[in-house]
Amino acid sequence: MSEAWEPPTDVVERVFGDRASGAIKFAALLADHGVERGLIGPREVDRLWDRHLFNSAVLGELIPQNCRAVDVGSGAGLPGIPLAIVRPDIRLTLLEPMARRVAWLQEVVDTLGLDVEVVRGRAEEPEVRRRLGGSDIVTARAVAPLEKLARWCLPLLRSGGQLLALKGASAAEELERDAAAVAKAGGSRQWVATCGAEVLEVPTTVVVVERDEQAGRRDGGRRRRKDG
Predict the structure, then answer these.
(1) Residue 223 DSSP class
(2) How many other CB atoms sit within 10 Å of the CB of residue 175?
(3) What is the distance, to the nearest Å, from the Cα of residue 21 to the centroid of all Cα atoms in its chain?
(4) Edge to edge, what strands does the sheet with 135-141 contain?
(5) What parts of the chain have a pLDDT lower than 50?
(6) For residue range 49-74, what is the model confidence (pLDDT) as tens digits?
(7) Calpha distance 46→33 (Å, rounded)
(8) DSSP for 50-94, written as a single string
(9) H-state helical runs in the chain
(10) Which residue of 39, 134, 146, 226 shows the fewest CB atoms closer than 10 Å?
């Protein structure tokens, strides 16, 4: 295991506070098993903290207290696991289609003692939408272009709920390119936000898409007619 994964203690404490030990355990699990299990690339071990854990945890700045959230395409558990560590008030579901990654996520949840649900499936599947629909927040990191994310993820949200898509430096360009498609998918408001500016050298860039209230009511009406 590379020694470079070991935490910059001061920043870990600033980001994770009294839950820093859980973050350190998660980083150690990724450093030990992430590459061999195909969860992260070999070069990522040396930048676990800045590029992955801190980048994910500060997303909590945008998430209200005691909300219901879904991490779509959770993969190695990013941003979901760091979020669950730093914000145990969030009722979080990790959604992942690949069986081997689902197994990993469940192992991590059990090892860290997190109150988190792990579900195998894709956001666009009808059963997943029935099960997880009406959520307050959906997160996604390195899953798909914004236009596809909006089509897949917005139906999981309640009216006025928000999709938080972690993006890189080109976030504004991607938003401009896909704005019309996102609006068509039900995104009423769209903007770029940053998180972690006070604690990170490179803040996290997030595209925020709010679900249109009319779209939510239409979906609710279809469900009621079908269920009735």
Answers:
(1) H
(2) 19
(3) 21
(4) 117-120, 91-96, 68-72, 135-141, 157-167, 204-211, 187-195
(5) 1-2, 216, 220-228
(6) 988 999 999 999 999 999 999 999 99
(7) 14
(8) IIIIHHHHGGGGGS-TT-EEEEET-TTTTTHHHHHHH-TTSEEEE
(9) 9-16, 20-33, 54-57, 80-86, 99-112, 126-132, 146-153, 171-184, 213-227
(10) 226
HSE-CB of 203 using CA atoms within 13 angstroms: 13
How much is the pLDDT for 215?
Answer: 61
Q: What is the pLDDT of residue 108?
A: 97
Alpha-carbon distance of 190 to 140, in angstroms, equals 15
Q: What is the pLDDT of residue 217?
A: 53
SS3 154: helix
> How many whole angstroms separate alpha carbon 44 and alpha carbon 32?
12
pTM for the full predicted model: 0.90
Distance between CA atoms of 24 and 125, rounded to whole angstroms? 34
8 Å CB contact between 105 and 77? yes
Q: What is the dihedral of CA 179, 183, 187, 189, to 10 degrees?
A: 60
Half-sphere exposure of 159 (CA within 13 A, CB side): 9
Identify whether the C-beta of residue 204 lies closer than 8 Å to the C-beta of residue 55. yes
Residue 63: which region, alpha, beta or left (left: phi > 0; alpha: psi -120 to 50)? beta
DSSP, res 141: E
